[in-house]
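Below is a filled-in request sheet from our internal design queue. Each sheet records the structural input a requester submitted and the sequence that came back. We keep these sheets so that new team members can see what a complete request looks like end to end.

REQUESTER: design group, bay 2
PRIORITY: normal
MODE: inverse folding
CHAIN LENGTH: 118
BACKBONE (tokenized):
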């Protein structure tokens, strides 16, 4: 076990500790995740050359409070995705609607099949 000098420690303000991970990705399971702004993360890892070299932003979550802007935001983000090869844009609201519609179609199909057999 390594001994730490007080000068090696960084103070951080913890806003929350959660039992359920805020992401649905398997890659985040079993590890400590820190969510913060780019500046905050850089302040935490500064002085560690390996971490600074590997530091990258791998995702941005946007929560829209006023749904009247959804279409404009969706259109703008799709344009950004189309002009930047390394970016992937996923609209979770649309994906959820599509998933619900698919499940409803399957349910109707199964109910119709059951009624025909009965």
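RETURNED SEQUENCE:
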């Amino acid at each position: 076990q390594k001994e730490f000098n007080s000068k090696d420690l960084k103070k951080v303000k913890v806003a929350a500790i959660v039992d359920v991970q805020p992401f649905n990705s398997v890659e985040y399971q079993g590890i400590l995740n820190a969510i913060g702004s780019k500046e905050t993360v850089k302040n935490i890892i500064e002085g560690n050359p390996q971490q600074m070299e590997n530091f990258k932003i791998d995702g941005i979550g946007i929560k829209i409070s006023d749904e009247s802007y959804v279409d404009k935001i969706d259109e703008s983000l799709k344009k950004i995705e189309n002009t930047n090869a390394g970016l992937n844009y996923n609209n979770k609201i649309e994906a959820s609607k599509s998933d619900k519609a698919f499940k409803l179609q399957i349910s109707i199909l199964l109910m119709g099949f059951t009624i025909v057999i009965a």
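SHEET NOTES:
- Helices lie at 38-45, 49-54, 70-83, 92-117.
- The chain has four helices and no strands.
FILED BY: M.R.
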